[in-house]
Amino acid sequence: MKHNFTLSSSILISIIFVAFSLYFSITNATNIIPKTCKKISNIDSDVKYNFCIWAFGRKNPNAINTIEQLGYTSFELAISKGMSTKSKIENILKDPQLDPRKIRVLKLFVEQYSDALVDLKGGLKALELKDYLEANNRASSATISALTCKNDSKAKRRIPAFVGENDDFFQLNSISIFITNMLFEMDGRRSLDEKR
Question: pLDDT tens digit string along 27-52?
Fold first, then answer.
């Protein structure tokens, strides 16, 4: 009988431990996204807090427990948005009735998005290798491509539907830059602590 009590106690303790671990991992996941989005939107006026929350909510937010996972997700979201926007632009270019003035602008945008996607994919690989500086440089390059499209006043007049798409892409790249900066700083502090 005493043996069963001990077995039951250890099972109960294990269940409680698992429940607390699960609770804290869910709490951490649900807190890391809003906290990080708030930091980003407070520092970078181009990133809207609600957009940041919405973007990360599209992925499985319960699977995001660390800043590093947030970094991977931000790059994946930016790549996905870049690919879908580039595809939409290419489909618009297939229209035989398209205004020739729009064709030139849209071809430039396809080129910019192609370059940005190469940078983002390279940034994701750098992130996987924990080369946060390179990941940050790649996200910054992708942002410059998005900024080129964002600042094109002719595009805003001729292709107004594209403006929102590009703005979302720009914000996702800005989020990736901010997160890779955080990771770079955290890694630097870790390195300093290890030297002490």
Answer: 444 589 999 999 999 999 999 999 99
Among the ranges given (19-33, 38-52, 121-135, 168-182), the one the predictor scored with the smallest mean pLDDT: 19-33
Distances (CA, A) of 104 to 93, 97, 165, 166: 10, 14, 18, 17
What's the rounded Cα separation, in Å, for the pair 106 and 196?
A: 54
Distance, CA of 92 to CA of 102 (rounded, Å): 10
How much is the pTM?
Answer: 0.78
Q: Taking a C-beta distance cutoff of 8 angstroms, is the pair 47, 170 a contact?
A: no
Q: What is the pLDDT of residue 174?
A: 95
Q: Which residues of 84-101 are buried (b: 16+ CB within 10 A; e: fewer)?
A: ebbeebeebeeeeeeeee
Contact 136, 184 (CB under 8 A): yes
Phi-psi region of 86 (alpha: psi -120 to 50; beta: other; left: phi over 0): alpha
Structural domains of the chain sorted by starting position, each given as residue range(s) with its CATH number in brackets: 2-195 (1.20.140.40)
Rounded CA-CA distance 113/72 in Å is 19
